[in-house]
């Protein structure tokens, strides 16, 4: 799902917006309706990235396989 996170430069509100193809569409602040919003680094990509790292489990020095309790 192409969900992007935006922050309003007027009031500082942070909100998520579902973008369907047309990225030129004007995004308005959910709170004050200001068009002065900036796109933040995708929280969705950040989450899936951290999940990817933890699923590898290769950094554990105890079992080296990601299966012991210290891996989680
Ligand atoms: Zn705002």
Task: Give the bound compounds.
Answer: zinc ion
Mean pLDDT: 75
Oligomer: single chain
- Which term fits the overall shape? elongated
Residue share in helices? 10-25%
Detail the poorly predicted runs.
Answer: 50-57
Q: Got a strand count?
A: 3
Radius of gyration: 18 Å
Structural class: alpha+beta
Distance between the termini: 27 Å
The ordered string of helix (H) and strand (E) elements is: EEEH
How many distinct helices? 1
How do the strands of the widest beta sheet line up side by side?
2-1-3
Largest sheet: 3 strands, antiparallel
Number of domains: 1
**Percent in strands:** 15-25%
Protein name: FmdB family transcriptional regulator
InterPro entries: Regulatory_FmdB_Zinc_ribbon (IPR013429)
Organism: Thermodesulfobacterium geofontis
Domain Putative regulatory protein FmdB zinc ribbon: 1-42
Would you kindly provide a written description of the structure presented here, covering whatever features stand out?
- The protein is of the alpha+beta class.
- It has one domain.
- Helices cover 19% and strands 19% of the residues.
- It has one helix spanning 43-56, and strands spanning 3-8, 14-18, 37-39.
- Strands 2-1-3 form a 3-stranded antiparallel sheet, with no helix packed on it.
- β1 and β2 (14-18) form a beta hairpin.
- The chain is elongated.
- Residues 50-57 have low confidence and may be disordered.
């Amino acid at each position: 799902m192409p969900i992007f996170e935006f922050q309003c430069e007027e009031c500082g509100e942070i909100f998520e917006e579902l973008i369907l193809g047309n990225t030129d569409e004007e995004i308005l602040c959910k709170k004050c309706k200001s068009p002065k919003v900036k796109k933040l680094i995708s929280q969705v990509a950040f989450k899936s990235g951290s999940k990817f790292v933890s699923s590898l489990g290769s950094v554990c020095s105890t079992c080296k396989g990601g299966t012991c309790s210290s891996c989680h």
